[in-house]
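Page 42, continued from yesterday. The earlier attempt failed because a stray header line got pasted into the input along with the sequence. Redoing it now with the clean sequence only.
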Amino acid sequence: MRRLLSAGLAAVMALSMTGCTVSTSSKDGGAPTTAAQTAAAQTTAAEAQSEGGAAESQAAGETKGEETKETQAPATDYPTKPITMIIPYGAGGTTDVYGRKLAALLEKQLGQSVTVTNQGGASGSIGSQFVKEQPSDGYTVLVCAETMGTYRTLNVCDLGYDDFTVISPLVGDPKVLVVGKDSPYNTLEELLNAIKENPGKITMSHSGPGGSGHNQGLVLKELGYEVSMTSFDSGNDALLGVIGGQVDFTNPNISTLQGYIASGEVKPLAVFASERMEAYPDIPAFTETLPEAEKYLDLPYTLLTFVVNNDTPDDVVAVLKDATQKVFQDEEWITFVEENAADKVYEKYADADAMNEFYGRWQSVICWLQYDNGVAEKSPEEFGIERIGE
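This time it went through. Structure tokens are written below.
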């Protein structure tokens, strides 16, 4: 009886969550496709999750006082059916683009289709919560952005990195400080001098509070540079505000910026990092002008990560990790990453200890930066996130 009640509740939750799905299916409502076929037509997460549902194994235990959550017993022949990859943002963004490339190449390694489904909303928390509520059997996986590390302190939801097992960090999408082509500023030093001379008057656009662009404005504030921060609906709108002369500068991702650099619509003044990019070696690192920014900039501000539920069987995790490492050696993946000038975070943090240290440091830097500047509602201390240096 308990098993039947659990299954019924799980089905209701799955159906309710699909109402938050961002649809990116084709206009003619055609059949679902895998990641290797097309990026336009998709299934809903509930449909993908129902495939092969009759083959699920018996319940493995109950969550804390709530519904029973079924976990498939470890199986050396995993995977035996299609896998659903949830992208907790709409189609076309950085997370979606890299998630789809990963899914297409994982299919080659796993011998099963990997169907990509977009479930956007609430800074990625809707799709992430959906994955958390699915069976921990490796058949529903997640590619998340860096917001996962700030959900709790921003009071978005109760999820954090420790609710998931990291299969691997993927890439960082470097941030570049740019001004419009007609801007009077030609170097970062000139811009910073203007900010010092006109505190609160030089304008910077970003895509919303708590986002990576906004975090960069907070870093400037911490370093004594007061800018007027203006929020736009998206990172692309924030960039267009600079191109159109509405604001003085912004910090877009290089993946959305390359065409504008090539056309001369913007002038890149610095990579918001402690190192130059291989793809653009002539753009100086931010720390070359402001060395004291090093403590904030030795980590990527736009980070993508491939994860599964944290109680997924070890042998399933091992299969996914092995397949993912093979993807990273695939020439198609390497070419894709290099053409998009992405930071190969997966090469820097390859083992469990390095990954744990990295994610811990990322949360310490960003969560405290947001809290100290009144952006985060809850203290990182509530969640055991220590301040760097303490």
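Notes: The first helix runs from residue 2 to 18.
Reminder to self: strip header lines before submitting.
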